[in-house]
Amino acid sequence: MSEQHHPLTDFVEYPQQEMLERAQAHYQDIKRRHSIRKFSDKPVPQEIIEQCILAAGTAPNGANHQPWHFVAINSPDVKAQIREQAEAIERGFYDGRAGEEWLDALKPLGTNASKPYLETAPWLIAIFSQKRMETEVGDKNNYYVHESVGIATGFLIQALHNAGLGTLTHTPKPMSFLSKVCERNADNERPYMLLVVGYPAEGATIPDHAINKKPLEEIMTVL
Ligand code: IYR
Fold it and tell me: Would you state the CATH architecture of domain 36-201?
């Protein structure tokens, strides 16, 4: 492809005071994002999920190959299959595979192998990363796949939060069962993460432990 560019016309520059106010407002909003572990079964229109996935698809990525695929699951039957298989994997994890140190780290969260929300929540989004890109003239390598899909997943979580939805990042290990359930080509695509999406159930709680965010001095150095 030839190197062609077009002018940047949609960049918006704000006065400095407004920049600060926007940055503050964004922080105030995003700090209300919490991982939800009790979901309501209240339906969420597919159109909203589609807009959020479009936002995820704008993430910066290697060579603009966009090495991701999002499977949005609303089918009760598919959700039930995912729950059954994920819970079987999590039972192995909690019954020994995790090891003592990991289980200790999870104690304040109060998690266990029971994952009813995988069926209750209206949507699950299975995110896949793609090793190679299929084109009309054959396969091409993808670059920075993990970074790209991680950023896109972050965009997706932000978009869903911004739309007024709760999420939970779920990563049963191994996640290979998702390829089969979602009918994806496991030779080229690897399950990256399962996002649970919906409204928090009445009385949903968040662990005290999760509120503790490191102070700026600890997470930032200025040189
Ligand atoms: N996948 C398990 C365990 C788990 C691991 C981490 I690291 C967490 O932050 C939370 C849970 C589960 O979902 O229960």
Answer: 3-Layer(aba) Sandwich (3.40)
pLDDT attached to residue 1: 57
Span 28-70, pLDDT tens digits: 999 999 999 999 999 999 999 999 999 999 999 999 999 999 9
On whether the CB atoms of residues 139 and 132 are closer than 8 A, the answer is yes
Q: Which residues lie with the beta carbon below 6 Å from any ligand 1 atom?
A: 90, 93, 106, 109, 111, 170-172
Amino acid identity, position 199: Y
Residue 110 C-beta-side C-alpha neighbours within 13 Å: 10
CA-to-CA distance for 184 and 114, rounded, in angstroms?
A: 26
Domain ranges of the chain: 36-201
How do residues 149-191 score in pLDDT, each as one tens digit?
999 999 999 999 999 999 999 999 999 999 999 999 999 999 9
Which pTM value belongs to this model? 0.97
From CA 153, how far away is CA 68, in angstroms rounded?
10
Mutate which of 37, 87, 93 for ligand 1? The one with the most ligand atoms within 8 Å of its CB, which is: 93
Q: Are 67 and 149 in contact (CB under 8 A)?
A: yes
As a whole number of angstroms, the distance between CA 84 and CA 103 comes to 22
Residue nearest to atom 8 of ligand 1 (CA): 106
